[in-house]
Amino acid sequence: MNRLENNNIALGADFLRHEMTPAASAAAGVEGYMEHDAAVYRTLLESTKAIPWKIDWATMEFAYIGPQIEALLGWAPSSWKTVQDWAARMHPEDREKVVEFCVAQSQAGTDHEADYRALTSRGEYVWLRDVVHVVRDARGDVESLVGFMFDISERKKTEEKLAALQRELEALSFKDSLTGVGNRRAFDASLEREWSAALRHAAPLSLVMVDIDFFKSYNDYYGHVQGDECLRRVAGVLSSAVRPGDFVGRFGGEEFVLLLPNTGADAARQVAERCRNRIAAEEIAHERSPFRQTVTASFGVGTTIPAGAADPVAFVNLVDTQLYHAKDNGRDCIAAVNRVG
């Protein structure tokens, strides 16, 4: 809470005490002074953007609400009769949570704050913050609630922009900037998540590792700019060959990885074969390749049903070994392993 809000709350408490509490035993001169004092506080309060209010706890009726409410929301002060009017003019998505919170805090005698969207007379919504002070009587029972409403719409807009920017930056941090597929960080996060899910449900999890054949020769012959374009095209082919929900990422250099949840060994091999055929169908020229002078790839495939203390890193290493078997067996082929636990 900023200094202005603190000052306004203190000022409002003084105002409401002077304005709402009769001084039955005071002398006429003191009463006159207090009436003048209350008028000063009222003028000050009603010239601020903060909107003061008071609710009688016994009747749940508004004893007072500042005239600024009409300028902000379009509803005349006279239309704010009970807490039902306050709740009814709250966004439906906010109403239950905010009302329950405020009632619980008030019953406990705890000062509190609540943010919510308030309906205007034009049918629009404005973000408000209610800062609430619980007033107790001599016995310690809740007597009334006093507080201020603040228009925090601009603050919320700024917060939403910052949140959107944060989400965008987070998404970028999980994306390979060259190919647009997931990066190594995204793969690690996806593997951890899918491994836990497979372990819980005793479901199969498959991994496909892909390595572009003779890519160093490709870069040496065509140059790095063309090499980058080759990587982008292969990433696009791999992405087109999997289901929504499957993960495609760049593991490093010319190596890619596919993570396939709820996928058995036969289905995983079919995915790898589909990727191999689609890469061949692209017919990306590769003069230095012995395979039809086009770009090809080697595939390592593994399937497991995680159990007990099984290690996902060990599983990745196992599939990586299959990839090297494929490369040792002449490249442009698939090597697979099926492992339980």
Automatic annotation (TrEMBL):
Pfam families: GGDEF, PAS_3. One of its GO terms (biological process) is cell adhesion involved in single-species biofilm formation. Residues 112-164 form the PAC domain. It catalyses: 2 GTP = 3',3'-c-di-GMP + 2 diphosphate. It comes from the Bacteria. Residues 203-339 form the GGDEF domain. It is an enzyme of class 2 (transferase). GO terms for cellular component: plasma membrane. Its EC number is 2.7.7.65. One of its GO terms (molecular function) is diguanylate cyclase activity. Gene3D superfamilies: 3.30.70.270, PAS domain. This is diguanylate cyclase.
